[in-house]
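RECORD TYPE: inverse folding
INPUT: structure tokens
STRUCTURE:
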């Protein structure tokens, strides 16, 4: 009985560890975020994510941070508009549409 309980615990722990590792690989970041995921975010998150998306190719000097700019705040409604028209699209599709 004791061995069965230990075996069951080990199987459960390994399953949980596998699920935790798998969820990290599917974590949504602005690089792979869909429009639906963006629209579903808390609206307070729209501007910071817009900053991340629009500044991903920018090389910032004097450190690795940047203040939230007016451009990224203004970009959020444009991304929302694009995403409502293209819910199956991605934020990368939005960037491509601007070029």
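DESIGNED SEQUENCE:
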């Amino acid at each position: 009985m004791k061995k069965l309980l230990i075996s069951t615990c080990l199987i459960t722990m390994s399953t949980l560890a596998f699920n935790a590792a798998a969820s990290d690989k599917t974590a949504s970041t602005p690089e792979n975020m869909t429009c639906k995921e963006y629209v579903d975010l808390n609206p307070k998150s729209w501007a910071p994510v817009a900053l991340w998306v629009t500044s991903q190719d920018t090389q910032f000097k004097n450190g690795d941070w940047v203040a939230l700019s007016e451009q990224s705040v203004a970009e959020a409604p444009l991304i929302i508009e694009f995403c409502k028209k293209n819910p199956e699209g991605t934020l990368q599709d939005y960037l491509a549409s601007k070029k």
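NOTES: The two ends are 66 Å apart (CA to CA).
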